[in-house]
Amino acid sequence: MSKFFCDSNSEVWFTRFDELQATCIGMPYTVDGKESFYDLGRNTDNRAFFDAMRKGANVKTQALNENDYIEYFEPVLADGEDILYVHFSRAMSGTFDSMEKAIASLKEKYPARKVTVVDTRNISMGAGMVVYYAAKKHAEGATDEEVVRFVESFREKVRVYFTVDDLVYLKRGGRLSAFKAMMGTIFSIKPIISTNEEGKLVNILNAKGRKKSIKTLVDYLESDKVDLSYPISIMNADTDEDVAVTVDMIREKYPQAEIWQQLVGPVVGCHCGPDTIGLIFVSAENKA
Fold it and tell me: Is the pLDDT of residue 186 over 50?
């Protein structure tokens, strides 16, 4: 038997997470020097976080250390159970160096136990969509190896597209040069960002203006051949009006679609900023 782990950068909202037989590793962030760990919205006021960003709060993220991972994993191994951890994209964080050190240390102490990790190669509900269905398979009795094979196949069908309202946050995170951020602001350019096959964020298109950028997100449902047997997830950084517009656009094309709506969490929000909106869905085809 194994225990299923994920992390809060998968952003499966706590009410859905509670359907799963899983443990979530809370990822850290600070607001004006005060550290917190994201809890999938259970007790965190995500809207207050984005209000603080708008007012100029100093927000940061950081990696977990080796002991943090040991505190999560060791009680499970000590109880004689294995671990299966489906995590957000390794390419986006140095936290996995600490994870590997923790696992190596624990394997020396518990040589009979097994820790299996598998990368969703995504973040936010791009990772969450994979986590949600992988955890369900695990709860239904799938072996760790079967879940790993599912993740490696399913992640190729998950699509993530999002657009930010203010380019300054991408500039701060080093994903956009100061010049491009300045020119984008002047000309109201809204980048469309996705994840590539390596699990990295990439700017795939630039749209002129907010309305056009949202329409571009919705257009990907058609061009990427959305599989409506899975939900379409709208992630937003406290931008209700844009969510309503997005829902209307989706309903016009796909009235039968199941739509999930939820707020971006503080860890991801540190990098994308307030008023970001994203669309996550499953395609009928693998990534090119």
Answer: no
